[in-house]
Amino acid sequence: MSNETPVLVTGASGFVGSHTARQLVKEGRKVRVFLRKTSNQEALKGLPVEIFFGDVLDPDSLRRAMKGCSTVFHCVVDPRFWLTDPAPLFRNNVEGLVNAMDAALECEIQRFVFTSTMGTLGLNPDGPVTEELAFNWYDKAPPYILSRRQAEDKFVAYCRDKGLPGVALCISNTFGPEDYQPTPQGKMLWEAARGKLRVIWDAAQPTVDIRDVAQACSLAEKHGRIGERYIISNEFLSYREMFTMVAAEGGHTPPLVLPVAVAEAVVRISEKLLKLLRRKDYVIRSDAVFLSTAFKELDTSKARRELHWKPRPMAETVKDAVAWFAQRQQVAQVGMTPIFGHW
Fold first, then answer.
1. With b meaning 16 or more CB within 10 Å and e meaning fewer, what string describes 7-33?
2. Which end of the chain has fewer CB atoms surrounding its CB within 10 Å, N or C?
């Protein structure tokens, strides 16, 4: 792909989107970013990018942004798994993707890189999960996961039936610096680093550095096979391992680790209480506990082999993320910006 032809990053205010834009700028690409006017643009501050305002539910705004581009990196995701009404998840994650793919076909985009999730993969309690394992947990999957699964099904169909030149990345739990929003996992990391995260449960999850995800997006454009999906993940870490590393970086004692059964009981009681209080949406959900134990090892050999992708050690990720949050807090303390002002 020529560096002179623009590329478009949708969802560019988010963690994956902003880092993808940053990676492409670093490579000397002409980068357009697509986001809502109401989006927090702090993660893009100082980047030489051309901003297009719009919404994935507005097809005309997508076409305007894509016109003249060679590649689209579709990083839009509605991650609000806590919503009791899942309709917005399906509108933004499924309908929004369909609109983007239709616009890409109309604008004759040469590559469409879709950032999906490891949640669309099948579960395998007996060994590593590969891209070939079919999704096999519809009965247990929460609405957020079902919206992402439906979106990926649409993506596969567009590549197969309509000629979309697409490549999908199934991304695991992302950590790293420049987490401006921040993400729920970023918040947990910083709380642990300053000794404020007192208790966690005995879970484990696949993890990956956000900067390596951004690099994978760029590599997928260059080397990814059309219609294929690639698992983008690195180390499988228990919460104990992860937050012990984090606490050590911050000079604090690691949080207490509770059995999963205890965490599930506490969360279920909290859910019932919040329903009695008529809270429409709530972050504490039993879905989160289930998802934190559902995934085991992920086989990333396909991405490493075909995309030539080489992720860094997660110990480096933790160190860099803690240092970034600490620096951001120092800035906040002199009155320049609230460290967690957008939660």
1. bbbbbbbbbbbbbbbbbbbeeebbbbb
2. C
Residue type, 3: N
* C-beta neighbour count of 138 within 10 angstroms: 9
343 exposed, middle or buried (CB, 10 Å; 0-12, 13-18, 19+)? exposed
Sign of the dihedral defined by the CA atoms of residues 10, 12, 17, 19, in that order? positive
Q: Running DSSP on this structure, what letter comes out for residue 181? A: S
Encode pLDDT of 283-312 as tens digits.
Answer: 556 677 777 788 889 999 999 999 999 999
| CA 114/CA 163 separation, integer angstroms | 15
Residue 6 contacts residue 109 (beta carbons within 8 Å) = no
Query: Architecture of 7-182+207-234+296-312 per CATH?
Result: 3-Layer(aba) Sandwich (3.40)
Q: Which of helix, strand or coil describes residue 185?
A: helix
Residue 220, judged by CB atoms within 10 A of its CB (0-12, 13-18, 19+), counts as buried
CA 71 to chain centroid, in Å, comes to: 20
Contacts of 37 (CB under 8 A, 6+ apart): 53
Give the closest residue to 110 by CA, choosing from 73, 76, 55: 73
| Spatial separation of the C-alpha atoms in residues 258 and 285, rounded to whole Å | 17
Q: How many other CB atoms are there within 10 angstroms of residue 227's CB atom? A: 16
> Hey, is 253 helix, strand or coil?
coil
User: Is the peptide bond between 182 and the residue preceding it cis, with omega within 30 degrees of 0?
Assistant: yes
Give per-residue pLDDT as tens, 175-195. 999 999 899 899 999 999 999
Do 303 and 216 meet the contact criterion of CB atoms below 8 Å apart? Answer: yes
Q: How many helices (H) and strands (E) in the chain?
A: 12, 12
pTM for the model stands at: 0.92
